[in-house]
TrEMBL record:
Organism listed in the record: Nothobranchius furzeri (Turquoise killifish)
SUPFAM superfamilies: N-terminal nucleophile aminohydrolases (Ntn hydrolases)
Pfam families reported in the protein's UniProt record: Proteasome (PF00227)
BP GO terms, sorted: proteolysis involved in protein catabolic process
Molecular function terms, GO-annotated: threonine-type endopeptidase activity
Highest rank taxon of the organism: Eukaryota
Broad class of where this protein is predominantly found: cytoplasm
Protein name per the record: Proteasome subunit beta
Amino acid sequence: DSHSKFLSEDRVKYENRSLNRRFIFSPLKRAALRKSMRHLTAVSKPTGDTVPLPFPMAHGTTTLAFMFQGGVLAAADTRSSCSGLVACPASQKILPIHSHLVGTTSGTSADCMLWKRILARELRLYQLRHSRRLSTRGAAKLLSHMLHPFKGTELCSAGTTKTQKPDLARLSGPRLFYVCSDGTRLEGMLFSVGSGSPYAYSILDQGVRWGLTVEEATSVAREAVYRATHRDAYSGNFVDVFHITSKGWTRRKREDLKEEYYREKERQRLERKTQHDILRANTSSRHKPS
């Protein structure tokens, strides 16, 4: 019977075979199913014609990560948007995978969080089986292979960052990868992903260098996110900054970008006042009688 057959063969193969038998449809049923699925993605008129959805489900973000002599720094805004609406002003877009690996996410929030949990589970299972952590390159390759079957579905994009333990630093060291939902996997020193990334790159390209201190790197990352959120409507609210070293990741206290905006305005006011004072002093010295 079916129970004895289940006991004599692999459980996964048996369940897959039973599912395939359960969902075998006749040609007429398949045609009806395709027709009903088309109606789920469109709005029907009284005349029977179909029109597209009332608005595109657009979304955006600003995430970045770069390497410097002090490790790897990752930063991101916290605004989750859906078309023209702010769905959540305080979402977390930098997701820790384990103590030495974090991922920045850009795309559909639910998909990004799901793949983060799947990747964390697979890396933990690998560590339990082999008594060591999978390398950053291996983790990025694993995520790339898992995402490739969903190519064209616009699931999510993720940049992953990691530093190895001190005893493995000479073998691997810090690594930075960009992994896209179509399976693309790139390794580099600096990445920025999201709708605000063009504005962030304008700051990162001129400010990032290998010899930065932790304070300087944090300042560059915060300014890059601030400039991006100032120009990109889909990014904003707060900024999260993670610093990853050989001892693991540390998280900086979340900061309100509104405060950064007011600090920038105050700096500009002081600069204008200083320039005005210098100009007035030069003018008065020229007109002073000898």
